[in-house]
Every structure is written in C-alpha cells, then in structure tokens.
Amino acid sequence: MTSGKGGRGRSGRPTVHTVAKAAGVGVGTVSRVLNNHPSVRGETRERVLAIIEDLNYRPTPQARRPLPSEHPLIGVMVADLYSVWQSRIIRGVETALAGQDYGLMAFALGSPQRAAQVAQPGHPSALAQGLLLCDDAAYRSWTGQERSQPTVRLGAVTEDLDYVAIDNRYGGLIAGEYAATLPGEIVGVWLRGQLKERQATRKGFVEGVESAGRQVIQHIEVEPQDHLHRVAAELLDRLPDRATVMTHGDDLALALITEAQLRGLPVGDDLKVIGYGDHSQAALVGLTTVHQPLEEMATRSTELLLDRIQERHEGAPPREQQFQLLTPRLALRGTA
Amino acid sequence: MTSGKGGRGRSGRPTVHTVAKAAGVGVGTVSRVLNNHPSVRGETRERVLAIIEDLNYRPTPQARRPLPSEHPLIGVMVADLYSVWQSRIIRGVETALAGQDYGLMAFALGSPQRAAQVAQPGHPSALAQGLLLCDDAAYRSWTGQERSQPTVRLGAVTEDLDYVAIDNRYGGLIAGEYAATLPGEIVGVWLRGQLKERQATRKGFVEGVESAGRQVIQHIEVEPQDHLHRVAAELLDRLPDRATVMTHGDDLALALITEAQLRGLPVGDDLKVIGYGDHSQAALVGLTTVHQPLEEMATRSTELLLDRIQERHEGAPPREQQFQLLTPRLALRGTA
Prior knowledge:
The structure is a homodimer. By secondary structure, the first copy, chain A, is an alpha/beta fold. Helix content of chain A is about 40%, strand content about 20%. The first copy, chain A, contains 12 helices and 13 strands. In chain A, strand 9 (about 245), helix 10 and strand 10 form a beta-alpha-beta unit. In chain A, helix 5 (about 110-120) crosses helix 6 (about 135-145) and helix 9 (about 230-240) crosses helix 10 (about 250-260). The longest helix of chain A is centred in the C-terminal third of the chain and has 20 residues, at about 295-315. Chain A is elongated. Chain A starts with a strand and ends in a 5-residue tail after the last strand. The interface of A and B includes residues 81, 103 and 124 of A. Strand 3 (about 105-110) of chain A pairs antiparallel with strand 3 of chain B. Chains A, B: This is Transcriptional regulator, LacI family.
C-alpha cells in the first residue's frame, strides 16, 4: 500500500496533529480518545493518552463539542444500489461506521439526469456531514458545486480530493505474470472505454506478460452493454485450441465458464479463464481471479472521511491531500 | 394475487378515478397520459385517451402542473444496503422508476439508533416525495411521526398504510405439500422470533404437510445471529438417515449443502433440502426453493407510491387503503 499524509505540526506548541503523528494514528482517533469515544479502546487509547501526557498537549475547548448535527449522516453516492460491487462497498463503509453514531444515506446516480440532480441547491445530500463519491458521474457532478462538506473519492485517483483507490495496473500485472507461466496462447478481453481505471488493468496485464518474454496474441474489446452470454459464445468460437483468457471482470469470466460447460469444454484444462474482481460467486465456482480489496477500500475511505469531519469540527487548519492506493492479489483457484 | 382497490367515482361527473377504473389502470397512469409523459405509450395510452373522449372527461387545471419539487426523489428505508434481499428490492424499485424523472435515495436503518434518527424533525427523508418502508424498524419509527408524504409499506401487511406483501403462508403451504410427497422424515428449521411474516411460512408448511396426512417430526428453532455453518453442522449430526429439511431461508440451505458435501453426503438423495427465497446463488447451486417475487413486490409498491404522489399532486380526495398480496411459487431443482 502506498499512502501520503500531510499535516505536520507547524508551531512549537503541540497540536492535535503532533499527537496524531507521534501515536501513528489519525487526528480523528486522537479526538475520539479525548472525547472518551467507545470505538477507541485498549492499546491505541493507552498510547494516545501517554503521548498526550508526554507532550503536555492541551486540546482547545471546542475539541469536545458533540457531533455537529442532530442527524449525523454519511452520504454515499454510487452508480446503483443493487450490484455486487456496490454491496461490497457498502459493507466496507458499515465496518467503519460500526460503533459510531452515524447514519447512512445513499444515492443511486446511474443516469445523467440523476447525477445532475445532485448539483442542484437544496439536494438532500447537502444534509450529510460528509460524502463518499464512489462513481464517476457523481464526481463530475460534485466538481461543479460549491460544496463545503468533507468529501472523499473512492475507487479512482483524483487531484482535487482525498481518495482511496485500488492499484489496478498492479492487479493486471500479477495476472499477466501468472498467465505467462501457463501453456497456450494468451488473449485479453477488455471493456471498451476511456476510463483510466479500465486502461490501467490492461496496461498492467500486457506489462506482466511481456516481462516474461511472451505476448498477448489478441486483444478483444467488448461494449459495457453487450449481452455477456453472447460475448462468451462468440469468444469461444474464435479462441485458439489452447488459450488463457484474461477477462475484464468476473461476470464475463463466469459467463465463459457456463458457455464452455454447455459445449462440454472443461475449463482449467486447454481453456483457462482468469477473472477480475473476486465477487462472491467467484469462490463458489472456483474461478481464478484478481482479488480487489473493495471492502477495505470502502472502510479506509470512510475512516478518512470521519477524520476529516472531526478535524473540520475542531476547527483544525486545512491539511494536504491524503490518499491511499491498495494492492490487489491473485486468488488462484481451478480455472487457470 | 389478491388485491383491494378503493376510489370509485363518487359524483355524476366523471373524475380521474372513473377514467382509471374504466381503462383498468391506475390514476397515475391516466395523469401521465394527460401530461403526455413518455413512460405511457402504445395500446395503454390509446385506450386511456379513447375512454377520456367517451366519458367526456375534462381534467381540472391543476392536473397539469409539473412535478412537485425540483428534487423529485423516492426515499427507500431498508434494514441494510448490502444484502441480497435488499438488492433484489432495489432492482424492482428501479424497474418502476425507469423512464421517470425520480431520483432514488436510500437509508440503511439496521440499528435502533438509526431507526430513531428517522423520527427526528428535519431528517433528509422528509425531502422525498414519497417513501417506501421495507423494514420493520423503519415502519415503527414512521408510525410515531406526523409525516404527510405518501408512504407504502413493502413486505408486510399493515392496517394503516397501503402495502404490497408476499403471501408467505402460501409459500410455506406449497413447500409442505411437496415435502409430503417425498420419502423420509420431514424436519423444519425456523428462525426464532415473533415476526408475523416468519410465523406465516412455518404455519403454511405444517398445513401443507398435514393436508397430505403426514407430520413434521421435528421443528428446530435457530437464532438470527447464529453462525450458519455451525447450525448446519449441528443439524447434520442430529438428522434422521432419510430426511427432507425445510429451511427458513436459502442461506441456511446453502450452508447445509456445503456442509453435507464436506461429509461426502450427496444432497437430493437420502438427504433433501428445500430453501426459501430463491436468491441468485440458489439457481447456480441447483437448490429447490420457494421463489419469492421480491422484484415484482418492489415494482408494484413503487407504482402504487407513484400513483399516490400523483393523486396528492392533483388534489384528489383521499382514497381507501390499497393492498396487493403476491403469490410465491416452488422452484424445483436438484436438492429435493
């Protein structure tokens, strides 16, 4: 994991930032210790208290105010509220909110009309203490606004916001390095589109394959709206006899497996399939895939957001951008 | 399906209700035709227009106002935002909202603290044009309030609200009738608790078994928070050699299947398992289960809610309670 943290103490007198840095925790954690919040217990709490005493740190009076609203809510903006991706994200958010007093409010912004709604004044999302932007449309809508809420971008690198993302280039790389060790031709199937996140996986995969002195013999591009089983059937028609197929996502990989089984082709033998994502059905079916730590990404984004809310609440000076880039890993199962 | 509809025209002059009844559609549909809304097209639109002409119906001027807010939003209150149940509900809601201008805002109310938040004045849910209550805690919180929004209860029978629910007694009944046709002893595993919805399935199951002159030899009650695989292992230890196990839900059924496979027991042979729900993994694994039409329930609830919003908007007089009770069906696959 790569991470960047700003916020060193800027004067001789110890600040909450000096304490946080010395204790190796976030400012929000220090504040929760000061407020005797039940979510910080045990060793962390002891360490923070010891450092507060060592440094003779005295919090300013407003650091002990209660939460800023009678409706402490975190707002989450997602493309939809039913996909597997989204449900893993929300699980991760809830892990960070467990034991906190925050409620959870989510907005499904899958259409341009809905994303545009968010930018209008008086939208209910303005009532949230902090926002998690999990979707590109939500992010674009947000950038046009005069919002003052703490906001964290989840799942993509940005220049103007704190963010937590997954290093998909690395995810592609490890899949490519592994594919290069397998017999047969290597084929990549990618989602058409300019999204940087999508390009990163493909780029990493090619790097991984070529670093082993091999080549991806064919790249096939599919449209996001294509019917998965039709794509799978067409792929099987044109694949070499022995091939490892790297797919852009678990959904297509699972469709390929189903389609191959219908044709009596065993997967994992001459035909090998690698997924991307590691959603719940992947383990059930024995799919070899790249595990994306989505829950962890969401938990860390939320923790970062809670820290930012707490800092704002304490009147702390604005800090540098913070970011974390999480590392995927290869989940080796039966299909490749 | 059972359904109750009030709102017959009460004077000689034709009203929007007279038109809706004659056309066999909801009041909202008539209104959308009058407003030339793109979501009503083809045969329905033609029929409504023909009836409007036949009856010489003239809408009152306010029936053509635009939507009541610059932020037309439907609010959905659910226990969580990550379970399979919830994702199927949201899919159904989105089906009803497709082509409409409404946004979707959801609140996760799994804890008593969160449910209590909803009852406080100024909660963001008050900004929604209409509410779908999908959760008991949300419903209890709602009943204490002076809310004026159109509100529909989803998934449970209520006396004070419009509702759309699933007839789980019938779901239990068809499972019981089927179990009675199978060899071996019949065992039921149920979730402990007083919820009427939970009791209904069990009651129906016993009825179904007994109507065929057979008996459920054992009812086992488990706690909602019990670990599924531990429950499954304990069940397998105490089951008769030949048994059909009716479970309260697909999750436990799938855990039983996994646990049985670990012990080398084939499921569908001496040991038969029936699920309840028919969530996505059920078909994948070949689980015989009771299909709950959750998506349909959510779509119909949302359509009912949209009709109520439109009626309110037109200043229509309050109508009688409306309800629909949907019928589950048995999905026969390999495990029983």
